Request: fold
Amino acid sequence: VPLLDHNVVEFLFKIPGHFKLNGMSSKWIFKKTMERLLPKENIYRKKEGFSIPIKHWLRTELKEMMLDYLEESRIEKEGLFSSQAVNGLVESHLKKKCNNSHQIWALLVFEIWKDKYLS
Reply:
């Protein structure tokens, strides 16, 4: 990642602030420099986000892993979260009553992290 290179960062700290910003445009110097290398429509296009199909994965490819890590008795034994609440999130998500993918994903990632680093 070029913008995290310490030489680039040290150089940028030496440049006066008024050269770094042009109105509300971020990375103005970087974009201006890139004009020689890339088409302008690529440099100045609006930022676009992207998403991954977690909602779908939790119902298919990741379902078994999710059920293992968020299994009611396991959650209850650990005592960190309400097993009933977690179970409710999982069940309603699997039955397609609600899209609880963000909450379930956060719980799943936490449980995996906890197992790896705290067990």
